[in-house]
Amino acid sequence: MKWVVGNWKMHTTAQEAKLLARRLREELYEPELPRRVRVIVCPPFTSLCSVQEALRGSWLQWGAQNCHEELEGAFTGEISVRMLTALGCSAVIVGHSERRRTAGESTERIARKLRRVVQAGLWAILCVGETLAQRRAHRVRAVLTHQLRSALQGLEPQQWESLLIAYEPVWAIGTGQAAEPEHIRQAHTLIAELLTQLGAPGHVPILYGGSVTAENAQQILQLPEVDGVLVGSASLDAWQFCTIVRVAALCTSPIPTC
Ligand code: PGA
After folding, report:
1. Which protein residues touch ligand 1 with a CB less than 6 Å away?
2. Which of 55, 97, 182, 184 has the fewest CB atoms within 10 Å, counting from its CB?
3. Catalytic one of 69, 96, 98, 130
């Protein structure tokens, strides 16, 4: 089983989102696909309702790009996991580098959000990854260790089952420069090792994100260390996204070339 998650970021009005979601539903209506791949699209909060309307009853799932760490209260402008659950969300992206950077999200806050998401029984898609400067300074291991440890230390055994990791090197996001397969392989192996050290009771799916397109999806998804992809800009293009989903489905088959 491979995962394909679409991060629509701050794109699509409610109406545009509905059209895109409907198109995905139509194009991905193939009985084989749900047996091989899980698809989750994450539109902006304001489009969740229309995406729910468009996808309800299909095999495609939807989720959010962020949430608040409290369930309710005087937090102007925030959205809680309770509200997301009521909209049928099955996942929440936590700790995306754009939020760490532009919204100043601290590792402590990310840890609290993650707990809230897994307690609600939703998938928490925890994003981790190094910047270019950190990579050049050979700090990839140190950065990933810190990000994973701060977010996951002390997680209850059953909470691990609601966790997905997205390895997203910051230098690869939105740049058109996906990481090389060898780099991805090494990073995913390292993450798997760190998860075991942190007490993961079983396999935690590790997705790759950063300039994934219809063209490079196969070379990434065929890596055995890669359980799926987190797709940003290519997820706004129905043809590209559907192609990535089909490639993911092929890569779960035992055919040795893919
Ligand atoms: P990108 O974004 O595919 O546009 O690089 C990925 C992400 O930020 O999740």
Report:
1. 7, 168, 173-174, 209-212, 230-234
2. 182
3. 96
